[in-house]
Design goal:
It is a single chain. The chain has 329 residues and is of the alpha/beta class. It has one domain: pyruvate-formate lyase- activating enzyme. It contains 13 helices and 18 strands. The strands form four sheets. It has an eight-stranded mixed sheet with strand order 4-5-9-10-11-13-14-18, with helices on one face. α1 links the parallel β1 and β2.
Length: 329
């Protein structure tokens, strides 16, 4: 899976670095002074690198945990995200990562203890529950066999009485979750589009059916699960396709096991959009009813409102509206 591993000089004393190297005894290992030498050059081909990404092991410095916009979240007042990994195993055409980063290599920050320290300090500074979201710059579980992220951080969060954690994923690699008792303040949130759209735009992603099975199994075990219907995409037979998706999910996963549902229409920073559009000039997605607004490319406002209203209406047949949260553009 990984043929080439780049290593920052400054991480060679960290235990996580040795643990990961041991998983790839045949990989070519190259040392660099700083990960930016490999990850940041602009004259790289994201599309070519995506076919065979390398792994970069590095130390993240500066601020490690960041507040999320007020229009996001699933009910908590204090919301933060952190990224142990940049880039994703999957290749979704609508994903902002391919416009955000110049490289498709997997960039992993191995100084987990520094992340823990910052998360703990934030959590202890709040008197109300505090949410920490992973899976913003990557998939939380898809590369678990490489990173060991969930197996490391879930026991850590279990010891923080004031902290909630969301693992956002399209993966069915949930073995590590089945090997431990469910955490009362953890949500395993699965992202979905209807299967017809997923087949066209979500390359390498497990089928909707297999993701629903993974949710069902986790729910039976006692894990809280979430639905992330994001991005909503305008399409032919929108109501029928999304209605079928919701029915297929809720017929397998009981409403009481679902912590929350979030919905958000397609939107992307303008610079990222232009870069991705240039990479995929034949992609029909980018011929949608989009317009520039507030530095983002998004659906025309009326279309966005209609997509969200129809989705909420369809969801109301299955779940308490209080569990549905709308992400604003």
């Amino acid at each position: 899976m990984i043929d080439t591993i780049y290593i920052e000089e400054q991480i060679e004393g960290l235990s996580k670095y040795q643990e990961i190297l041991s998983r790839f005894p045949k990989a070519t290992v190259i040392t660099c002074t700083h990960y930016k030498e490999i990850f940041n050059p602009s004259a790289q081909s994201f599309r070519l690198q995506k076919k065979k990404p390398a792994l970069i092991l590095a130390k993240q410095t500066g601020k490690l945990v960041h507040p999320i916009p007020k229009s996001y979240g699933v009910g908590g007042r204090h919301n933060f995200y952190f990224s142990h990994l940049l880039n994703c195993l999957y290749d979704c055409r609508y994903c902002f990562l391919q416009g955000m980063y110049p490289s498709a290599h997997y960039l992993m920050f191995v100084n987990f203890e520094d992340f823990e320290k910052e998360i703990k300090n934030i959590s202890q500074s709040k008197t109300e529950p505090t949410w920490f979201f992973s899976g913003y710059d990557c998939d939380s579980l898809a590369l678990e066999s490489v990173t060991g992220f969930a197996s490391h951080f879930l026991p850590f969060f279990k010891r923080l009485p004031n902290a909630w954690v969301e693992l956002r994923t399209k993966s069915v690699a949930t073995q590590i979750l089945h090997a431990m008792d469910p955490l009362p303040r953890a949500v395993v949130a699965f992202s979905f589009t209807p299967q017809e759209i997923s087949s066209q735009l979500e390359h390498g992603v497990p089928s909707v059916k297999s993701r629903i099975r993974a949710m069902q199994k986790l729910a039976k075990q006692g894990w809280k699960v979430g639905l992330r219907i994001d991005p909503l995409l305008e399409c032919r037979n929108f109501e029928k396709r999304y209605s079928n998706l919701f029915r297929n999910i809720f017929e397998k996963v009981p409403e009481h096991a679902i912590h929350s549902v979030s919905i958000g229409a397609f939107r992307m920073p303008k610079g990222f959009y232009k870069k991705i559009e240039k990479q995929y000039p034949e992609e029909k997605l980018f011929a949608g009813n989009f317009k520039s607004q507030g530095g983002c490319i998004a659906y025309q406002r009326q279309i966005e409102i209609q997509l969200k209203q129809k989705s909420v209406q369809l969801l109301s047949q299955w779940i308490n509206p209080d569990k549905v949260f709308k992400c604003q553009t």
